[in-house]
Amino acid sequence: MDGSTGTLATTGAGRELAARLTHELHKRVVGQDYMIERLLIGLLTGGHVLLEGVPGLAKTLTVRSLADSIHAAFHRIQFTPDLLPADVVGTMVYDQRSGDFLPRKGPIFANLVLADEINRAPPKVQSALLEAMQERQVTIGGETFPLPEPFLVLATQNPIEQEGTYPLPEAQVDRFMLKLRVGYPGKESEKEIMRRMAGHEPAPLAAVATPEDIFAARREIGALYMDEKIADYIVDIVHCSRNPGEYGLAELEPLIEYGASPRATIFLAVCARAHAYLQGRGYVLPEDVKAIGADVLRHRIITSYEAEAEEMTADDIVARIFDTVQVP
Q1: Chain centre to alpha carbon of residue 76
Q2: CATH, range 224-324
């Protein structure tokens, strides 16, 4: 079967699912199309998402609204400095009737978990959550429990407040498939936000998707056609972040402490397929890789002190890489 046309017919149901979810979310969330699309990509691929932005940009509202739009279990964990790992994953409790210690599962046992202000909890709590994200299982009292499927962690953090926070180590941030930078709304959107939210309760939402719908969409995304040239393009982008001199970007070498990990290669391919899927195509284009590239790479390229001195961010470096690496 020709990949560029054969799988196109199978994307209709998935696009309809994405359209239903987007419609429901926009009943509460004004604008923020970028954030909503990226959250759908995370949901439809099983990749965890980290949302970074100043307070009041509807990050928590959007995640909660997404949960309300799906027939699935949802738990919100407010991360605070006094939180303990057991408060997240669970612990053993003594049952007086039986005289035994029994596991009490924590809020991590849900389909969608909102880790609100994740950088406010100490590293031991962050590690407990991120281990569950990676292994998709939790050990309580020597017994291992698998987490429910689908399982998705959507975390938020505030980039401007450093007092009383514990920034996530780079190796742990790498476990998030996407890191989103959520910006301010435009004037018209802000006026609509004021009209909707000032003195009004959030609009009720209907659950328009089931876990079976999500699993079906994931299978379709996994079957989308990706040409070998696109695969080579993705590998070139990631290798350019590690060895920019080989791609004519020697000036970036002192600015990059560490390039992107192999997870970047995997997630660029997965997200490019999902982006093409949401656009209604059965095949991946270089534009899909470019559209999702910054969200996959910005937290995986570690900049040096020299980059900070020159006020070069990871986003700037990613833009230079995409401008330079030859498009197939």
Answers
A1: 16
A2: 1.10.8.80
Backbone φ and ψ of 115, nearest 5°: -95, 90
According to CATH, the superfamily of the domain at 12-213 is: P-loop containing nucleotide triphosphate hydrolases (3.40.50.300)
Chain position carrying tokens 């018209």: 188
Q: Is 244 in contact with 250 (CB distance < 8 Å)? A: yes
3-state SS, residue 8: helix
User: In which residue ranges of the chain is CATH 1.10.8.80 found?
Assistant: 224-324
Q: Higher confidence at residue 229 or residue 132?
A: 229
| Separation of alpha carbons 39 and 114, rounded Å | 12
Which DSSP string do the residues of 66-121 spell out, in sequence order? HHHTBSS-EEEEE--TT--HHHHHEEEEEETTTTEEEEEE-TT-SSEEEEETGGGS
Give mean pLDDT, residues 81-88.
Answer: 90
Q: Label residue 2 by pLDDT band (50, 70, 90).
A: very low
Location of structure tokens 């990706």: 226
More confident residue, 320 or 97: 320
The mean pLDDT of 207-213, rounded to a whole number, is 89
Whole-angstrom distance, CA of residue 269 vs CA of residue 26? 28
